[in-house]
Amino acid sequence: MTQTKKLYAEAVGKIINRHDRDHVGYLYRWNNGELQQAWFGRPRADVVVEMFKMDAPKAC
Q1: What angle do CA 25, 30, 40 make, to 5 degrees?
Q2: Distance of CA 16 to the CA centre of its chain
Q3: How far apart are CA 15 and CA 41, in angstroms?
Q4: Residues 18, 49: contact at Cβ < 8 Å?
Q5: Which residues lie across from 26 on neighbouring strands?
Q6: C-beta of residue 13 within 8 angstroms of C-beta of residue 51
Q7: Where are the beta strands (DSSP E) in 1-60?
Q8: How many CB atoms lie within 10 A of CB 32?
Q9: Edge-to-edge strand ranges of the sheet holding 23-30
Q10: Taking a C-beta distance cutoff of 8 angstroms, is the pair 29, 52 a contact?
Q11: pLDDT 10s digit of each residue in the chain, 60 long?
Q12: How many CB atoms lie within 10 A of CB 30?
């Protein structure tokens, strides 16, 4: 575990129920690199994560 304080997080993926494809939560990445699941209800066991496409940094 990192010593950096968690200050902010951004959603990096959707958590999807494998059987019925329901959207059941989000996957967040904190500023220190840690990942955390955020569920809409109870946590599910058989899920997949669909990662969001991140845009490449743009040159100024």
Answers
A1: 15
A2: 11
A3: 12
A4: no
A5: 14, 38
A6: yes
A7: 9-17, 23-30, 35-39, 47-51
A8: 14
A9: 35-39, 23-30, 9-17, 47-51
A10: no
A11: 568 899 999 999 999 999 999 999 999 999 999 999 999 999 999 999 999 987 766 665
A12: 16
Q: Name the amino acid, one letter, at 8.
A: Y
Where does residue 12 rank: exposed (0-12), middle (13-18), buried (19+ CB within 10 A)?
middle
- Residue 26 near residue 14 (C-beta atoms within 8 A): yes
Side-chain-side CA neighbours of residue 29 (13 Å):
7
Give the separation between CA 50 and CA 14, rounded to whole angstroms. Answer: 5
pTM, full prediction:
0.81
Yes or no: say if 16 and 27 are a contact pair by the CB < 8 Å rule. no
CA nearest 36: which of 16, 6, 57? 6
